[in-house]
TrEMBL record:
Signal sequence range: 1-29
Pfam family, one: LPMO_10
Key words of the record: Secreted, Signal
PANTHER family for this protein: CHITIN-BINDING TYPE-4 DOMAIN-CONTAINING PROTEIN (PTHR34823:SF1), GLCNAC-BINDING PROTEIN A (PTHR34823)
Cellular compartment(s): Secreted
One cellular component term from this protein's GO annotations in UniProt: extracellular region
Domain Chitin-binding type-4 intervals: 30-198
Name of the protein in its database record: Chitin-binding protein
Major localization class: secreted
Membrane-spanning ranges: none
Length: 200
């Protein structure tokens, strides 16, 4: 009888551990933008070389939610604060030179697209852009961004594995800017971050 009780306790313990792993929203929750193309996608598809681990897991740029009041620290926004993806924070690409950009036009209705490898209950998708005159020679900070998103897409439920939504790009921009996309998860403490370089 004692042996049976120990076995039951072990099963309960394993089940509890499994539930905690599932509910923590760790390695199973993933996504990145490919319209406009994000830095992690350029690393994954080989356009940018010497990116390190991000080339294998562009979907894993996950950090604390609540941006801009909370979230990753300044200088670590593009990596979501994850040291293994620090190459994404550099103002220049790891193999030298400027990050590739997507050409856009101010005021145009643009279709943003995320590729997800896990569909999680979602609060919203938000898009921020750098200010005119932002400092392009350092890792992205809140001071470089307009902290009111130019597009917010509320979402209730689990999105499809490819999700697109449209919205107008800001006017009054020229030259190189960075768009920070934030996908906020409803049932964990995290969000996914993606930096895309664009040219107006």
């Amino acid at each position: 009888m004692r042996q049976k009780t120990k076995w039951s306790a072990a099963v309960v313990g394993l089940a509890t551990t499994g539930a905690l792993m599932v509910s923590s929203g760790g390695a199973s929750s993933h996504g990145y933008t490919d319209l406009p193309v994000s830095r992690q996608k350029f690393c994954q598809n080989g356009t940018v070389a010497n990116c390190g681990n991000i080339q294998w897991e562009p979907q894993s740029v996950e950090g604390p939610k609540g941006f801009p009041a909370a979230g990753p620290a300044d200088g670590q926004l593009c990596s979501a604060g994850l040291g293994q993806f620090n190459q994404l924070n550099s103002p220049t690409k790891p193999d030298g030179g400027a990050w590739p950009t997507t050409k856009v036009t101010g005021g145009q209705n643009y279709t943003f697209r995320w590729q997800l490898t896990a569909s999680h209950s979602t609060t919203d998708f938000k898009y921020y852009i750098t200010k005119n005159g932002w400092n392009q020679n350092r890792a992205l900070t809140r001071a470089d961004l307009e902290l009111t998103p130019f597009l917010t897409v509320p979402y209730s439920g689990r999105p499809p594995y490819t999700i697109s939504h449209s919205g107008a790009l800001p006017t009054g921009k020229s030259g190189h800017h960075v768009i920070l996309g934030v996908w906020t998860i409803a049932d964990t403490g995290n969000a996914f971050y993606a930096c895309s370089d664009v040219t107006f």
